[in-house]
Amino acid sequence: MTFLSVDGQRWVMQERRVLEALLGAYVTTLLIPGVALFTGTLDADGVPVLVGAGVIVAVLVAGMARIVDDLADTVASAPVAVTTGLPPLGYPAYMILGAEPESPAAFASAVGSFALLLGFLVPVGGEVVRNRRLREAATEVTAVTVGDGTDDDGTDWPLIAGTAVALFSVVIAVGIAFVSGGTGMGAIAPALGGVSTWFLILGDDDATEIAVTDRGLRIDRGFTPWNDLDGYRVGEEEVEFVRTQRYLPTRSFERERIDDEDAFIQALNRYLPRLDERGRVSAA
Description:
By secondary structure, this protein is α+β, with helices and mostly antiparallel strands.
């Protein structure tokens, strides 16, 4: 990090502290309600003990995360997303199926359900931090504008992410209403209103900027290092990028919507192999 200015170093440290705090909050929110449900310490005397234990767990986890060399790269991965996303699902299931309304157990389950949101924010936060660092360190070779971008299988991944967050908000709102015995139904309306907000923010893909840099491919604010791409293909209608990680979608862009296709292809040839038939002929 010696290439960063003093202000840049401070910003990097702040980003890392946020990720450490997110991890601590996630583990605490995941574990402490479960401990409360398992031990039955849900009365007024047990709450201060649980809160104190939660603070200790959060501090310990944040301290352990500090020894990880590159925390953003570590948490910004599909395995981490699965690991942080699956365990909290037990809380809303128990809250709806096993707990009595307005009971301490229902309240503890509602608190534990917030680990779903924190488990989502941990890998997303790591990805945001990693992308920003890669963008700032990269030198841009050329940039083009595309009318819109789609995945090769037609899947709108930003829309799916927005839908997942919106559905989580609805689940939490319903849980609050359930815990309160119906008096919290007013929380559902803002959650449903948030659905349309997420659709508008994450589903808008009308204009996409693609930049070829010396370190990777930047698509809007996202960044993919060259090592994560096998190459690219130029078809009759689309330019397609093939990813090394098979669990990630292959991105493709309509050729007629690229404002300077020749400059774009020429820049790509410096860093990626061309995998279509013309590329194989040229290589031969």
